[in-house]
Design a protein that fits this description.
Blueprint: H1 3-15, E1 19-22, E2 28-32, E3 35-45, E4 48-51, E5 56-59, H2 63-73, H3 88-96, E6 99-104, H4 109-123, E7 126-127, H5 130-147, E8 154-162, E9 165-172, H6 192-199, E10 202-209, E11 212-220, E12 222-223
Antiparallel strand pairs: 1-2, 2-3, 3-4, 4-5, 6-8, 7-12, 8-9, 9-11, 10-11
Helix pairs in contact: 1-2, 4-5, 5-6
């Protein structure tokens, strides 16, 4: 990686709240400081910035866009800093509002989507169903990564609380409808919607356009007691 490009990219990454280490002249190591397990190595190949997984983040020369995509990949929304504490008013408003975040269509995004929904449920002080919700978010996010339009760069996860029900929605760009089927005993995939049917209190599919669908699931929950908090 060109030394000057490395400096520019590092500054854009730091501005988005990411921790950056220049390992050598060709590799930049980037970490989410709130979760040190979310780390990615970034280098260059064929005129593009690429991750250690071989995922293209953007063309060389587009350091701002590359930093934005990597911030999504590592679980930090565009333009936010993890060390910027929200005001009390901001926290109150966040509890009342549904939460939505965009994730890159990358395998690492599955764990990030699961953590995002778990954080929302914890902030709302909900009791029970955390494991069920996490499992379904994992399955739906995995489907979004595997089966969306090959040109799609991202998918969206939305979580809302209404009348003691948590509703989780995963929206992606795909023309086909999900297929609920009984998987074979030795099958390595095909279990996502089967698990959703078994675990969620309700679920379904909605369309936001000709090339966009959302699979949603609802779970009955309750407020945590003081002891559970």
């Amino acid at each position: 990686m060109d030394a000057n490009a490395s400096v520019i990219l590092s500054e854009h990454l730091k501005a988005r709240g990411l921790s950056v280490t220049n390992d050598d002249d060709s590799i930049v190591s980037v970490t989410n400081p709130l979760n040190p397990y979310l780390v990615e190595a970034v280098g260059t190949a064929g005129g593009h910035y690429v991750t250690g997984w071989g995922y293209e983040l953007g063309a060389t020369g587009d350091e701002a866009g590359t930093a934005q995509r990597l911030a999504f990949l590592l679980g930090i929304p565009n333009g936010s800093r993890p060390d910027a504490a929200p005001t009390c008013a901001g926290k109150a408003a966040a509890v009342q509002q549904p939460r939505e975040r965009e994730f890159l269509t990358h395998p690492a995004s599955v764990a990030q989507a699961r953590a995002f929904v778990t954080a929302a449920m914890s902030a709302w002080r909900l009791s029970g169903r955390h494991d069920d919700v996490r499992l379904c978010v994992s399955e739906l996010s995995t489907n979004a990564v595997r089966h969306a339009d090959p040109a799609a760069l991202s998918f969206v996860v939305r979580v809302a609380l209404d009348d003691a029900r948590v509703r989780v929605e995963v929206r992606d760009q795909a023309t086909g409808l999900p297929d609920l089927r009984q998987p074979e005993a030795d099958a390595v995939d095909g279990r996502g919607l089967f698990l959703l049917e078994a675990i969620a209190d309700d679920w379904g599919v909605t369309h936001g356009g000709p090339d966009e669908k959302a699979v949603w699931a609802e779970f009955k929950v309750s407020l945590a007691t003081d002891r559970e908090r």
